[in-house]
Amino acid sequence: MHKTSIKITSEKLDLQECYDFVTADSCGGIAAFVGTVRNDTQNKKVDFSTYKPMAIQEMHKIAELALEKFKIQKIAIHHAEGMLQIGEIPVIITASAKHRKAAFKACEFAIDTLKESVPIWKKEYFEDGEVWVNAHP
After folding, report:
1. How far is 15 from 114, CA to CA, in rounded Å?
2. Which among 134, 108, 92 has a CA at the least distance from the CA of 7?
3. Rounded CA gap, 116 and 123, in Å?
4. How far apart are CA 78 and CA 66, in angstroms?
5. Is 16 exposed, middle or buried (0-12, 13-18, 19+ CB in 10 A)?
6. Residue 106 pLDDT more than 70?
7. Would the pLDDT of 133 be above 60?
């Protein structure tokens, strides 16, 4: 039985896919984090670039650490790459555990660690220019 689902894709991310992956009869709680492109300015677009082999490797490490550290049953970490519009989803993390607190903590750990250590870069495009955004929270 696989305990992790890791994905980087240019296709639209699917919350139901992540939820279904972590669902288990032995779990009393499922937590989810869904990141969205926010509307800081009109007509903003965001481009996510990755060094995919290393990003996938680092995401696997995060998932394994979360499984060990928080005693969760399963975790899914999916990230988009390419150009996204306001309201679209660049990242989904779901985790399941016997008790809800572990699932919540695992999701928070996973998104915080992902932003610190995974080679995914974000460039924001505005009507009057563009800017690379620091990947850290």
Report:
1. 18
2. 92
3. 16
4. 15
5. exposed
6. yes
7. yes
Amino acid at 4: T
Task: Tell me if 88 sits within 8 A of 48, measured CB to CB.
Answer: no
Spell 99-137 as b/e; 16+ CB within 10 A means b: eeebbbbbbbbbbebbbebbebebebeeeeeeeeeeeee
Rounded Cα gap, residues 115 and 110, in angstroms:
9
pLDDT digits (tens, 9 = 90+) for 47-98: 899 999 999 999 999 999 999 999 999 999 999 999 998 899 999 999 999 9
Sheet with strand 29-35: strands edge to edge: 4-9, 74-80, 91-97, 29-35
- Mean pLDDT for 20-43 is 89
